[in-house]
């Protein structure tokens, strides 16, 4: 393999990526190099990743539980803290049980591994997260990919397999554009077609509660690095399915458990997420205000209340010009390209730390860039 040639090809295809060094973060401000930016790239929607750190509380915790068990959960790494967190989360979301994983990515790998070798067909939304795609590939399960949020297409495909076990798999909130799956309708399809499971990746919705009907979902996976603001993942499921995961989930079996010090942050932040609803309310108001400004400034209508917003562009040069204009003005946003998205897209993530004035400033820059492009033409 010619590595240089491959990298050159990625650059020519506008798919080349680099790592940016972050020097500091505080609230909505992030420092890259010598410059501070208003951060619209974070998934810390509720601001829990930056909860004040109580050193004395943390030291009492590690004195009691230790810092790191340094072992797989199936050997000697299964701290009692796992049980406490799993019981807390499963009780709140009305599931029989839960499994804490090292990441949301690992959660989806372990989930689909449980179905490996079984006579099942997965029906997956075309815009589902990469971890779902990779989990399906590694498990070698038969799959049908239905068009994004096109449930008539899904229904037609389900009807082809009347006697087969079927798994409908979807993100709840799609990470690149903030679109919401219609969970209520998917529950209806699950009941209409026999032998059907509904599996939801709720990574960008957990804690924000965009749907109420958790009891009719068979399995939920999620990252804990978004609304929970900690590192890890979770699978919410039945007690029987958890037993199966413990015996088949390779990402669980062959990974060391997390340091107990990390479980401290998961437990602390989960409790805050469940007990501080004002964070969610502030985020909802910000989302509605962003939608209002998006329509007023660009004529684009958005009714979604998720904290993920996006603007799609026709070509890379246009997207690059807006991205750079925002950077130059001290606004850091996410710039997505193929294969993450089909068209170049700027994504804006709202968090608890933002104010309406930050959104106003964002659109002032976008409007100025729009006017400058008209002048150049």
Number of helices: 13
- What share of the residues lie within helices? 40-55%
Order of strands side by side in the largest beta sheet? 4-10-9-8-7-5-6
Terminal CA distance reads 43 Å
Q: Structural class given helices, strands, pairing? A: alpha/beta
DSSP strand tally? 14
Helix-strand sequence: HEEEHHEHEHEHEHEEEHHHHEHEEEH
Q: Report the principal-axis shape.
A: globular
Low-confidence stretches: none
Largest sheet: 7 strands, mixed
Strand content: 15-25%
- C-alpha Rg (nearest Å): 22 Å
Average pLDDT taken over every residue: 95
Textual characterization of the structure:
This protein is α/β, with parallel strands linked by helices and 377 residues long. The chain has 13 helices and 14 strands. It has a seven-stranded mixed beta sheet, with helices on both faces. A four-stranded mixed beta sheet has the order 1-2-3-12. Strand 7, helix 7 and strand 8 form a beta-alpha-beta unit. Helix 12 packs across helix 13. The longest helix is centred in the C-terminal third of the chain and has 22 residues. The radius of gyration is 22 Å and the shape is globular. The two termini are 43 Å apart.
